[in-house]
Amino acid sequence: MAMINKDISNKLFHSLVRRANAATCSTFPPAPQPVASTNDGDKIFELEDTKSLFASVPTGKLMHAAAMLNVTAVEPVVDLSLWMMNSRLMEVGLVRSAVMGTIKHTAYNHFVAGSDTVETGQTVRRLWDSGLRGMLDYGLEHAIDNESCDKATQQLIKTAEYTQSLPPSSVSFVVVKVTAICPVYLLRRVSDLLRWEYRNSSFKLPWKQQTLPIFSENSPFYHTLQQPAPLTTEEEHDLELAHQRLQIICDKSFEGNVPVVIDAEDTSIQPAIDYMTYWASVKYNELQRPMIFGTIQAYLKDAGDRMSLTKKAADKMGLPVGFKLVRGAYMSSERKLAHSLGVESPIHNTINDTHDCFNGCATFMLGEVSNRPGGLILATHNLDSGKLVARKAREYGITKDSEKLEFASLYGMAEAMTFGLRNAGFGVSKYLPYGPIDQIMPYLLRRAEENKGLLSSSNLDRQLMMKELKRRMKAYFGQGMTVSENQFLNQKLTP
């Protein structure tokens, strides 16, 4: 391999250190102005111009991001990390400290917005300065009892209240996981009862409040093979407590004019989550702008039908509805369960079927909200879907100011698409999980397991980041590099 001479090497080293240190304490530079619309329908945003694309990202942060994406793209590395975190070695104090310290300065800093509201608020401000918004997600889920639900609720209330101290509009949504405010066992009980009621019209649920459609004819019902026992008095009381927790969180969030988006989970408990989501929608979505957004997972075969039925019922009631559209995160476990029961999987048979469902749902909702109230959060890392929806939004005249469409992606991922959509003038948010490292480790482990394929397919981000780093280094050192030095940079900076 060709070598750079000693002077160049020292300059490079000290320059990168200075830039990395500066990036840890400074805000992002101002975002570039949106690019004017083009007549070329396929040219939604410019990705080739990396200088404009990453203009708001300091070099130190860009280096860290490129390094993390390159490491996490290697599946054996992710597999080894998952094995280590789930092994008994983590019971050894010294090993645990070393592992957690490494994670803190690598994956945690890249994929997590902060350990508390103060650190997360700093992230939100940096994003806001760069033309992006934040979706605040307190990283606690799967509560087991009322005590843990109450603790999570208090933190979610604190999250909602904290938005009022941040720049107006810098927070697009407060994220709520119903699994954090209602015991999971109760969500399963409620889901079973809702499924049984749907299939047996004479079966009544005395505790059920007004909501919107939860199922379609092709929804999965194999979780409930026999009539479930009614909720006990204690369970009904606990369900009412869950309603109260959600109501308090919503009230606090709405005080800052920040909508709430409720996450989806696996199909065994999703009916109960939809029930609570649509109960809150009926209660709060009275104005032109929906304040409660539910989540539709497009990898489910019934996703399109459920979205359509819910929207139609809401229209009859005069309610604007909002959906966050995602592809889904439980493909492996859903298929394994269906296979073990000898039934058809609720997941689309091919990835192309999922893409078609996702794009179809997005197009449907854009058409629905183009001339009437409602909203769509397009949560995707898929560039083709991003381009499709951006084109449709322009066709329908849906602008950033209308607040009817928000693109969203996970913090630390899909950066090229994020900045490209921002530069094209669309509203873009980053999904910001936060919490102490010990508490948020389950989140990181699940995301690592669920997104292994996604991380390994982040080739576009890696290539564009490396291209921009190479451009900055050349600009810094000038154009007087030798052929051998150029070859060195090409080898080092090409993913």
From TrEMBL:
The lineage of its organism: Eukaryota, Viridiplantae, Streptophyta, Embryophyta, Tracheophyta. It comes from Smallanthus sonchifolius. This is Uncharacterized protein. It comes from the Eukaryota.
